[in-house]
């Protein structure tokens, strides 16, 4: 049986390792940082800016002491876009910078204007994949989200994960992509209010 806990701020540095490993073969993450050394260099800092605020808000869900992690940002809490942009500007290959800017602009256009629960990051350590950890993380988070009643939002960077999200009521609302990027799939789960 998978044990789900809430990641504390003191756990964040350790649990970001799980996310970095989990996204190491992610289509969009590796399109943005195709060089392995570049990907590893500041990815912890990037993921902290993207979803690390969940640790301060009690909304970082952790499976089996770090085998998998999901960082949910509650309504009104946003990623640190300035830090993310600076890191991506440094790490994105020069020939992809215009496309990266386009990808981010499309993400911003799709993102709901109303306050939503936002899932920037969910991943399992590759050594622990295939154990249902993603399902367990989603079940725990959806219980909290349903109690709140507001909508939830994510962009799936891996098509293989879309069926998982659909099982939890997320609906595809479009596609985000550039000329050479893999697709990002924006998905919305309507509120229960």
Automatic annotation (TrEMBL):
Q: Can the keyword Protein biosynthesis be found in this entry's annotation? A: no
Any single Gene Ontology cellular-component annotation? ribosome
The question of whether Cell membrane is a record keyword is answered with no
Gene Ontology molecular function terms on file: acyltransferase activity, transferring groups other than amino-acyl groups
Top-level lineage group: Bacteria
Ordered alphabetically, the record's keywords are: Ribonucleoprotein, Ribosomal protein
> Which part of the chain is the N-acetyltransferase domain?
26-192
PROSITE patterns in the record: GNAT
Looking up CDD domains in the UniProt record yields: NAT_SF
- By its UniProt entry, which Pfam families does this protein fall under? Acetyltransf_1 (PF00583)
Question: Which protein is depicted?
Answer: Ribosomal protein S18 acetylase RimI-like enzyme
Q: Which organism is it from?
A: Sphingopyxis italica
């Amino acid at each position: 049986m998978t044990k789900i806990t809430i990641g504390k701020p003191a756990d964040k540095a350790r649990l970001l390792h799980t996310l970095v490993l989990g996204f190491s073969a992610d289509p969009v993450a590796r399109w943005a940082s195709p060089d392995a050394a570049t990907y590893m260099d500041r990815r912890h800092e990037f993921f902290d800016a993207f979803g690390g605020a969940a640790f301060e808000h009690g909304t970082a869900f952790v499976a089996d002491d770090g085998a998998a992690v999901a960082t949910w940002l509650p309504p009104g809490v946003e990623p640190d876009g300035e830090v993310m942009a600076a890191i991506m500007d440094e790490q994105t290959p020069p020939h992809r910078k215009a496309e990266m800017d386009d990808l981010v602009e499309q993400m911003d256009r799709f993102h709901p204007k109303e306050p939503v629960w936002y899932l920037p990051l969910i991943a399992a350590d590759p050594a622990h994949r295939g154990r249902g950890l993603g399902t367990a993380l989603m079940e725990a988070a959806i219980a909290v989200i349903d109690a709140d009643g507001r909508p939830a939002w994510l962009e799936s960077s891996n098509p293989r994960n879309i069926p998982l999200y659909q099982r939890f009521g997320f609906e595809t609302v479009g596609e985000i992509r550039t000329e050479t990027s893999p697709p990002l799939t924006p998905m919305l789960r309507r509120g229960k209010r």
